[in-house]
Amino acid sequence: MIVIREFDPSKDCIAVEDVERRCEVGPSGKLCLFTDLLGDPICRVRNSPAFLMLVAATADQNEIVGMIRGCIKTVTCGQKLSRSAIPNSDHQPPKHLPVYTKLAYILGLRVSPAHRRMGIGIKLVKKMEEWFRESGAEYSYIATEKDNVASVNLFTEKCEYSKFRTPAILVNPVFAHPVPLSKRVTILPLSRSDAEILYRRRFSTTEFFPRDIDAVLNNPLTLGTFLAIPRGTYTPHTWPGSDRFLVDPPQSWAVLSVWNCNDVFRLQVRGVSRLKRSFARTTRVLDKAFPWLRLPSVPELFSPFGLHFMYGLGGEGPDAERMLKALCGYAHNLAKEKGCGVVATEVSAGERLRTAIPHWKMLSCEEDLWCIKRLGEDFSDGSVGDWTKSPPGMSIFVDPREF
Question: Which residue ranges traverse the bilayer (predicted)?
């Protein structure tokens, strides 16, 4: 008999880590990515507004055989016209306002290999969904690799989730040399208050935008928000603040924020042959010896390494791609200073600025899969309708607290 109960950090940490290790057995001869949670099993959800971790234990409590994590927040699921908006008044376009919903997220579902095909995964999901409903969540979603057949089947066939969005995870290595930045672009660090104003004014109607963006920006793991503008527009001394900037912005600009995953968890690539390890080591040696050549060196990814996550990417204007590329270079150099192995981000399949984001295909996931489920029928979706049936937008706002 299996008992589903809440995770107890005072006695479950070692057993949970043991299950994690047993689950992280990659296929023979293939590259695999392993995660070290640095002794904190709830590190990937603890920064969310509400979170819970459940474990599956044998009836005598002597063995933990599975676990699941979940968190809840309020996000944008659509948009509506402002009641005060008068189309064509003074030639101003009608104002759109975000429509919010309470959204739950499932991650870190694990079942010990010796206890699979016993319905434990389904029990964990159902129990977590009970907490979601009790907490007022209207939707639940999960992210998984589209090629993870077992995971996709569990959620779509047995738990009634539907395939929803297919964003791309773009990962770029941190080289031994700094990335040169365009001299035609000025990069300004924004204060947290200016960053919040900019995001709420320009991105609050973006799908999955967190209503508590202020909590994300004020979290110590956010290393900063950076704005790229044409050189000569503003300097740190002449910056007027986001309010005045948005009244008359330059023709093109871009913005992004950086989240420090390095202090939350570490990653490690395993299953690499000695030949490939030697090649990677050689590229690093050459890059350090001849930095002016700017060789594309492979970082040390075969020992635990940290990453920085770029979120809130966006921009406007015909030159926004060049602006965003400069920001990605700036983020790369920041990660180099902090000793990280990679920088990463996640964007929607239709994101128009996607081509400006440097990444290595071998490290990236070109088509991640998000599945969603409506948790109840006793609430109103207002002007959105059923979000699970809505078409994808051009952009999504990926919350770094859930990466």
Answer: none
